Structure formats: C-alpha cells, structure tokens
Fold this sequence. Notes:
The protein is mainly alpha-helical and 151 residues long. It has helices spanning 6-21, 29-36, 40-52, 77-91, 101-123, 127-136, 143-146, and strands spanning 56-59, 65-68.
Amino acid sequence: MIKLSKKMLFAIEAVLDIAYHAGGEPVQSREITRRQGIPRRYLEQTLQHLVRNSILTGVRGPKGGYRLARERRRITIGEIVRVVRDLEAAEDATIELPGSDLGRQVVRPLWNEMREEVMAKLDNLTVDDLCTRAYQGGVPSEAVKNMDFNI
C-alpha cells in the first residue's frame, strides 16, 4: 500500500497551492508555508526534489519562487506520489521483511495489487482536478490578486 506520510501530503499540498494561488508570478516557499502551515524544513527539500523531477520549475531572484513545470492538467497526483515515494525510499534503508509462505505468496501480492489500483486512480487524477475541487468547495484563491496586467 502507499504510505501516506507527512512529506507526501506536504508535496501534494505544495503543488496544489502553486497551481491554485500562482496567478502570473512564481510562488515563494514562505507563501506556501503561510497558507498551508507546512514547516519550511520539509517544504524546501520537497520542492527541490519536485524541481529535479520536472514537476516544478525554480525561478531565481528577488521575485523568484516556484512554478508548475507543465500545465496543471498534465501533472498527475500519481507523479507527485512517485517522486516523494522515491525520495523517502532513498532516505530509508530498505530491508526484506521476514515472512511465511502465506505472507509472501498471498498477503504481499494482495497488497501489491491494491497499491497498483490506488496508483492507477492517482494517475488519472490531475492537479487541475484538485484545483476544480477547491474552487467548487469555495476555497478562496490568491491568484486573482496576484494577477498584474499592465497594458
């Protein structure tokens, strides 16, 4: 099954925050921290990992921050979950768990099937879908005030 860790939740919330609140400017990590209550020490490491995996783009400079690397309808929640899962796997030393024949031949394959079903569902759920849910749920967006048009 997929372990729903703090880091995974923070990554999904951060990408969703960037998509939902960005407007025309990059979103700074301190804005995400303010809105989502994500501790900065978790956030920066996760954001950098998302940049390295082409989900986000980092923008340098005084008005820098983070943007989506692609359109929000082209980024799936499954991608974000895999990036964080890989990050967590690199941090944890994996060891083979001991088990009986029943565990190895019946229980673990069942868990693997369930994980694959969950990942298939997450692969069909985009950041745009979550933004639509937020909008329909009445979650206010700062994107409108972040839009700055000069003609």
